[in-house]
């Protein structure tokens, strides 16, 4: 099934928080603009970049602590720190955000049936929860969505980490229900392409996918810029080859024309005859003209 990924929201002025995945990522929750409200924003202004994958993966999370205050690992909220459903929330403390805890380097938790999730609440009720699972990187985390019905009867759906990411026109769809309602699955991050895997630079490989990194269906098309460069190179190469070929053709043609001109204008010397019948040579002593009235020039 098709998969889509989360786009970030933005904390509008005068808020100083910048990009946020939920309203509680803003200094003032009322300043939050959902990913739906950010559609059409300039790419590099007014929070438009918050929709990009590199911005989503750079989002700061918090840390879980045990009773002694020892750091246990990065997590999005207190729900992700607990072990068993219904366990008292004060067993593990959570603080955040922390500079070393980004979405891209966090190991999220896993439901006992294998689904990686943003928090324990996203699992089937009654399931157990394994925190900080090494296999639960952000591209494996199943999330929910914010949705609304349009006037034409269609439904508009955006992947989101929680209902706190929805605006006043949207309703929340739980992670386990998204595919049935929207016809696609929602994940926290794009699935990493094999072509850019292990490069250490996720953002460069994703700025031009997902509608320029904005979170549409996951795919890895060749970058438009690369296509243009390749085509220009081909055109330039063909132009150079054509110019060289034309010059060669002109040179050969000129040589042939010169050769033909020489063959027409210069007759062989063996065919030239000189009539000296009326020559005055006979009037000079010592010149014998009695044998022949014409002399045939011959080659040396």
Task: Describe this protein's structure.
The chain has 300 residues and is α+β, with helices and mostly antiparallel strands. Helices cover 19% and strands 18% of the residues. The chain has 4 helices and 17 strands. It has helices at 53-57, 178-182, 210-213, 224-265, and strands at residues 3-5, 9-11, 19-20, 32-33, 62-65, 71-75, 93-95, 109-111, 116-117, 129-130, 141-142, 144-149, 155-160, 171-173, 185-187, 273-275, 294-296. The strands form 6 sheets. The protein has a 4-stranded mixed beta sheet with strand order 10-8-9-11, with no helix packed on it. A 3-stranded antiparallel beta sheet has the order 3-2-4, with no helix packed on it. It is elongated, with a radius of gyration of 42 Å.
- Range of strand content: 15-25%
Structural class: alpha+beta
Order of strands, widest sheet: 10-8-9-11
| Total domain units | 1
Largest sheet: 4 strands, mixed
Individual helix count: 4
Unreliable stretches covering 5 or more consecutive residues: 195-223, 276-300
Pick out its properties.
disordered C terminus, 4 helices, 300 residues, 4-stranded mixed beta sheet, elongated, 19% helix, 17 strands, 18% strand, 3-stranded antiparallel beta sheet, alpha+beta
Short description:
This protein has 300 residues and is an alpha+beta fold. It contains 4 helices and 17 strands.
